Amino acid sequence: MAQEILKSIPTLKEFDDEKGIIRGYANVYNVKDSDGDISLFGSFTKTVTERGKKIRIFKNHDWELVGVPIEFDLTDTYGLGMTAKMLLDTPAGRDAYNEVKFLVDNGFESGMSIGGWVEKRSTKNPAEVVEYKLREISVLTTVDPANELSLVNMVKSVKQLEEPTREEFWKVIEKAYNERFSDNILKSLEEFMTLKDVKPGDEQVDTTSNREPSKIILDIYKLFI
């Protein structure tokens, strides 16, 4: 029986704002992941060749279409290179693209995570995966772990600062407000920015409401409080 898996790496780096294109590695080879598995070169060849047109791009493994893969690189010995086109004409696709790009632009790591099954393992070393079957590839924007590598690894603060100040934090939030997010996220940001005048030591603010701030903003906010 095939083993269902979610595996993630922080490797989203290239963006094309006009076309909604992102490039990165969906998975890397010869590295032991948090499950103890090692993807071997060629482990995606069969699934990409046979069903590449059936693979979809989701966000955080939620089953809502935000993009499609338009190219896989099966010859790269580092990992499964992928170019994806995000659906910028839909709110979900536009937000997924802009959230990931916003994280990367501000010094945070974001990545992709594969969803599917392990079809075959090496008979010599069961940790080595020789064949996957992909169902979807997700871009990651939250710190909600499927495993410890499913994090948007916010281990570095904005612009590499070790002890970011509240002022620096709000610069990031204001920058986010000027990005091309959907109306829903912009409205959440407007509400969230009402927290700006809350001082350290003030009574705890309830950030839940009928219009709860976007999770990406709450995740960043938690780094500074």
Which key phrases capture this entry?
single chain, 9-stranded mixed β-sheet, 23% helix, 225 residues, elongated, 5 helices, alpha+beta, 9 strands, 2 domains
Write structural notes for this entry.
The chain has 225 residues and is an alpha+beta fold. It has 2 domains: 3-150, no CATH class; 158-222, no CATH class. It is 23% helix and 30% strand. It has 5 helices and 9 strands; from the N terminus they run ββββαβββαββααα. It has helices spanning 45-51, 91-105, 166-177, 183-192, 215-222, and strands at 3-9, 12-16, 21-28, 38-39, 56-59, 62-73, 79-86, 112-121, 128-139. Strands 1, 2, 3, 4, 5, 6, 7, 8 and 9 form a 9-stranded mixed sheet that branches. A hairpin with a 6-residue loop joins strand 8 (112-121) and strand 9 (128-139). The longest helix has 15 residues, at 91-105. The radius of gyration is 19 Å and the shape is elongated. The termini are far apart.
Summarize the structure.
With 225 residues, the protein is α+β, with helices and mostly antiparallel strands. The protein contains five helices and nine strands, in the order ββββαβββαββααα.
Helices, strands, pairings?
Elements: E1 3-9, E2 12-16, E3 21-28, E4 38-39, H1 45-51, E5 56-59, E6 62-73, E7 79-86, H2 91-105, E8 112-121, E9 128-139, H3 166-177, H4 183-192, H5 215-222
Parallel strand pairs: 4-9, 5-9
Antiparallel strand pairs: 1-8, 2-3, 3-7, 5-6, 6-7, 8-9
